[in-house]
Fold 2-C-methyl-D-erythritol 2,4-cyclodiphosphate synthase.
Amino acid sequence: MNLRVGIGTDRHALKKPGKMVLGGVVVSEEVGLKGHSDADVVCHALIDALLGAAALGDIGEYFDQSERWRNASSLVMLKRMRDLLVEKGWTIVNVDVTVTCGAVKLSPFRERMVETLANSLGIDKDSVNVKFKTANNLGFEASEGASAIAVCLISRSSSG
């Protein structure tokens, strides 16, 4: 069996007013994140982690700054990358994400994020973990933006 680990990161600045989507879940209707798509740092970090593990490049190679992807749902992008990995013979074993954002209390949204990500990735909920940090009033994520770091494990049979 072939096992690979991938890591991905993303960060976006805050915008007010706006809508913040993280892990496919709306977590704020008052403050959002600036970006070409919906700026979902959780999905973007996961996409890069999955692509990295499969040695398939990075998010910018698949989702450019064209009108096609303006305000697009990052869950749609995540599902496309899941489909690409499956097409290449990979199975997603598990994913783990840490989100840092001081602007919005995120813990009430954890279970919905886990469910949404598990459904989008086609894996069990117990294979998805999402953690939150506040930045302790330090740096960019404390008051200016949000970031995410994701790690994943994928597998493929040796004959694949």
